[in-house]
Amino acid sequence: MEAKLSKEKIIQTAFQLLEDKQQLNALSMRHIASALNVKAPALYWYFKNKQMLLQSMAEAMEMQLIVPEKQPTWKHDILAYMESYFDLYSQFPCSVELEIHTVPAYPSRLEHLDAMIQILRSGGIPLAQSHLAVNSFHNLLIGFIMDYKEEVHLRQEIIDGNQALLEHIHFMRDYAEANQLRNIQQGMQSRRNRHLKNEYLESVSIYLDGLHARFCEKKA
């Protein structure tokens, strides 16, 4: 067993490699071993397989979540939590892919999820709907980040000269203008100056307002 190795060092190196690769499926134990200047079998003293490594990477990421302070209302509490998750996922490479390909079977994640569910329940949301809501908030976040990542990729392809993509953009713009699709035109204009974090938090706020209207206003 290599004395200079540790679980923490392997995880750190894996994240460093993802900074360059930007694809979780491109990460391999062999690549990590090469970056550490050791042979691949040395890594298996610490992780039985790649999936176990991914689980530990997800846990290491989750442990960096900044748990927000108590807010004036339960809706603000949830917003603060999801803002922290947005910041967390923006900090780590391939964060959403890592989230998708792992099971939340580690203490920090379970405790954070339970805390969010309890916040919703304290606001009058039933248990089943609280579970659904927390899952929806995270799925929405994953979708936002993945969509933005792909949008950035497509923009770069257009800059690099992908004429097929450019033609599709021109068609969309021209069709919306010719058929007076004002909402589509305004949406295309707003995306040029979009602020992803604000858009996400506004979407969460809309969801929270819906929960409040459905479960809390009826009781008032």
From TrEMBL:
Keywords (alphabetical) are: DNA-binding, Transcription, Transcription regulation
The record places the DNA-binding region at: 28-47
**Matching PROSITE patterns:** HTH_TETR_2 (PS50977)
Family matches, as InterPro entries: Homeodomain-like_sf (IPR009057), HTH-type_Tx_Regulator (IPR050624), HTH_TetR (IPR001647), Repressor_TetR_C (IPR004111), Tet_transcr_reg_TetR-rel_C_sf (IPR036271)
Q: Which GO terms describe its biological process?
A: negative regulation of DNA-templated transcription
Segments forming a coiled coil? none
Q: Which Pfam families match?
A: TetR_C_1, TetR_N
One GO MF term on file is: DNA binding
Any keyword DNA-binding?
yes
> What are the residue boundaries of the HTH tetR-type domain, all occurrences included?
4-65
Against PANTHER family, the record matches this protein to: ACREF/ENVCD OPERON REPRESSOR-RELATED (PTHR43479), ACREF_ENVCD OPERON REPRESSOR-RELATED (PTHR43479:SF11)
What protein does this entry describe? HTH tetR-type domain-containing protein
